[in-house]
Sequence to fold (140 residues):
Amino acid sequence: MQDSICKASLLVSALLLSACATKPVAPQPVVQAVAQSPAPPKVVKQTVYTGQPYTPQLWSGHKVLTLSAEQCAAKGKAVLETMQFGSVVQNGNYVYGNHLQNRAAVKCVALDNGSFVYVAVAGKMKKAVEALRNEIVWQF
Fold:
């Protein structure tokens, strides 16, 4: 009885090991011959995403501040976070963040008596980019 159990377990082990040694077959791509109409664009509040490449709108602004460059960057991070930007990252005196389909960058440069802040916002919709840039610069 034990001999037959031992032989059965060896047979199962051999089958399992042989399955591991076989080469997997790469799946072949499926070609569709049916023409599909493009999906309608997805609308997210003010920004329309079509999935098509586009040249972004780029709006910028600047101010001379009495704050140090470090304080300027901290304020830039706070401004983007209060405006509900996502993925806000501060790297030294640079701050970046995303808002819907828009991207904002705040750069602070030290001056003798304060700092210089440069704000740039890029995105597809002109009015949304302009409004975001105006609000960020206004909060400085």
Observations:
- The beta strands are 42-44, 47-49, 57-65, 86-91, 94-99, 102-111, 114-123.
- The helical segments are 2-21, 69-82, 126-139.
- Residues 61 and 137 are 7 Å apart (CA to CA).
